[in-house]
Amino acid sequence: MSTTRPTPQEVRTTERRAHAANGYFALMGMLGLWVLAAFMAAGAHHLIGAVLSVVLSLLVGAGLYMQQPNEGRVMTLFGRYIGTDREPGLRWANPFAGKQRLSLRSRNLTSPTLKVNDKRGNPIEISAAVVWRVSDTAQALFDVDSYETYVQIQAEAALRHTANLYAYDDGEDLQHGETTLRAGQDEVAAAMKAELQERFAAAGVEVLDAKLTHLAYAPEIAQVMLRRQQAEAIISARQRIVHGAVSMVESALKGLSEREIVVLDDERKAAMVSNLLVVLCSDKDTQPIVNAGTLYN
């Protein structure tokens, strides 16, 4: 019967608790061995016992280490992972085990400004800040070559991929309510955080936060896109002005009719509407003209 061996990608190292103890008891034991060695050395017939006590005290002292809060000691014994100690203070563990210190604190990663293409293919400049920390010490040290380099490279890859999924700004080619990089930064940040977590999982790293820190069009198209945005803003403003002017003209005609101030036929109403729209929609000051005649002369 044949068995299928797991591929290297399927083998994951999982953190487990190391067999470590309070270091103060070990320190007291080491001092006691020194006292015992001194007592035995006083008698000529106990030199061997004194030497053994000194050697044993040195072994006990070799297992002592001081650990700060939010730190971990990853221990290996003859090339085999035996566990991680996360308890702060003076600690003691197997003196023959290797003890590698690993920070568990939150860290900031600011990606360099990248030049990528958005969903439309327009070149943009983008960068992000990522807050992360090591959640599985065994994966961080044994499943990737250098977890810090791994995090940096994967963060840039995730940022590039996220930028390709969204357009920089709204446009006629987008569906109504579609998320864009400029207007939907919260949604973009949430999507980028989810992708970062998926990529960082292989290194035992947890993503705490991710935000865009820089977003702009690339210099070669910045001026063109700026004129486009200005044109869209002007069109939007004109639409609002025209809508408001029409409402004001309608209100004016209705008021004149209801109060019977003046009776206007269709031709005079058209002339009045034309004059009012010119006054209300013009972006320059209008000059009044006194008409001494009538519309029919």
UniProtKB/TrEMBL annotation:
<keyword id="KW-0812">Transmembrane</keyword>
<keyword id="KW-0472">Membrane</keyword>
<feature type="domain" description="Band 7">
    <location>
        <begin position="62"/>
        <end position="229"/>
    </location>
</feature>
<dbReference type="Pfam" id="PF01145">
    <property type="entry name" value="Band_7"/>
</dbReference>
<feature type="transmembrane region" description="Helical">
    <location>
        <begin position="21"/>
        <end position="41"/>
    </location>
</feature>
<dbReference type="InterPro" id="IPR001107">
    <property type="entry name" value="Band_7"/>
</dbReference>
<dbReference type="InterPro" id="IPR036013">
    <property type="entry name" value="Band_7/SPFH_dom_sf"/>
</dbReference>
<keyword id="KW-1133">Transmembrane helix</keyword>
<protein>
    <submittedName>
        <fullName>SPFH domain-containing protein</fullName>
    </submittedName>
</protein>
<feature type="transmembrane region" description="Helical">
    <location>
        <begin position="47"/>
        <end position="66"/>
    </location>
</feature>
